[in-house]
Amino acid sequence: MAHSHDQAGHSHGEENLSDRQLILAVAINVLLTLAQIVGGILSGSLALIADALHNFSDAASLGLAWFARRIGRRPADKLMTFGYAQGEVVAALINLTTLLIIGFYLIVEAINRFAAPQPVEGWTVIWVAGIALVIDLVTAFIVYRGAHDSINMKAAFLHNVSDALASIGVIVAGVLIILYDLVVADLIITLIIAAYVIWQGATLLPRTVRLLMGAVPDEVEFDQMVENLRALGGVQDIHHVHVWNLGEHHRALEAHLTLVDYSQTAFEGVKRRARAMLEKDFGIAHATFEPCLATDCDDALIPAHPAPANGKHTVGD
Predict the structure, then answer these.
(1) pTM
(2) All residues at 6 or more sequence positions from 276 whose CB lies less than 8 Å from its CB, including other chains
(3) What's the rounded Cα separation, in Å, for the pair 84 and 144?
(4) CA distance linking residue 204 with residue 198, whole number of Å
(5) Helices 87-115 & 151-180, crossing angle to 10 degrees?
(6) Could you count the other beta carbons within 10 Å of the beta carbon of residue 30?
(7) Which of the pair, 53 or 111, is modelled with greater confidence?
(8) What sign does the dihedral 162-165-171-173 (CA atoms) show?
């Protein structure tokens, strides 16, 4: 099924979040992380330290996103002919990998605490987690405007929302400790936070890796795109099709075309129609075509890749 995209508008949501607001969000989360670590050490709460590490990952995510955005604005040059937009995807990979490491570390620490329980001071947990909840909500509100069209901003926003939920969980654990001396609640909340952190990282990591590997963009239905190109007037067949992302939002394609008429005028007309169709239906704004004689082209579209039961090729098949 064809898709319509506004290629020029992909970054509007992200640009609504200014660099100054992004830096403010980073600073707030760094200060919150320090406060939670101190509070966790003083109270003996592993859940509070877990929430602190999650907040630190948010600050790192926002800081990397800010750095990548600055690099991504640089124009293409002779060393990076496609530009620097891919830097944001690299930043996302670093952030998500860190998330997974933190998640597994928290699980190991929680298991160790189950084996050797430690006392937890409930009121300190509640006060620090309450402050964290307010700051998480404020940060999430700041980041929300840039979360629509950027994998980095979306990850950061989801982290802040999950932090707010984690802070609520830590407050609940503090209340249970005060009322029932239920120290195990702190460890259970830690495991829940760790599991959610791992789930977040594991969910976004495959898309990030596919972007870095030059995979067919998720939104592009490859077989439909090829059929649309073959159906254009003046095109006899199409070979050696490659389509990939330039950064997160911009797409590129190159292909060999076997033409009905090999005149320069006819080829220019085919290219004009093909580029208009690709941009309108598949959001591909950068397309390069090479004409080839039927006797010179083999029939390789792409390497053998059997279609799934539904007949549609996707990157995960």
Answers:
(1) 0.65
(2) none
(3) 24
(4) 10
(5) 20
(6) 17
(7) 111
(8) negative
